[in-house]
Amino acid sequence: MYELTNVTKTYNTTKKKIVALDDVTLSIPDGQMVAIQGPTGGGKSTLLQMLGALDRPTSGDVQLGSSTLSKLGDHRLAAIRAKEVGFVFQGFNLIPTLTALENVETALAPLPGSGADRRQRAQDALASVGLGDRLTHLPAELSGGQQQRVAIARALVKRPDVLLADEPTGALDEETRDEIMDLLESFWRDQGLTLIIVTHDSGVARRAERRLHIKGGRVTELAGQPA
Ligand SMILES: Nc1ncnc2c1ncn2[C@@H]1O[C@H](COP(=O)(O)OP(=O)(O)OP(=O)(O)O)[C@@H](O)[C@H]1O
Ligand SMILES: [Mg+2]
Hints:
The chain is α/β, with parallel strands linked by helices.
């Protein structure tokens, strides 16, 4: 369960102060699938960074389960990122010089377990996204949809409670988009994940249980669901 209370995030640039999130109060129950929409610059990625323990708010509190993310030091935040939260990005963010298998294994590096154990889990994760026969391919040797599958395997191999996806289908054609969404939804259902997807695509957003809109750093509920 996420509880955000009066979360504000400002960036000080040389020219002016930018309010990226403006007094956001929001709760997201465990296991919910949420789509976040809104115009460019509205604060979507900033909100994901707060949820993903990548950054702290300027003021306000971000609570995930029993942890108050906004108050934790860097070390504890890194541990939460390593264990509890998976990320998928629009640009896949795979390491170009590592194979699919090695890319997925990187997510397990900060966690306990032997090398052989890591390798087996990474193999299983790639098999679960339909890439069991592409283990030794480099990212450049995979299609866009396949690269995104590797990124999803990397995000899920550690069995996180939360999966945060920032425009996961933005770089894909419609058919591949639907395949990737089917895959994300099946993991969401089977693993009881909290799935939070930033998207510009209403076709993607319609699949969520709940839709939020962010503009000028302010969050509103779409589709009449309770906050
Ligand atoms: N590191 C930063 N330094 C200064 N300003 C920033 C920084 N990151 C984001 N911003 C500003 O904060 C605001 C929100 O940015 P954010 O990236 O959250 O938008 P977004 O909704 O994800 O947009 P997009 O759809 O284009 O990805 C924007 O005005 C942006 O310019
Ligand atoms: Mg963004």
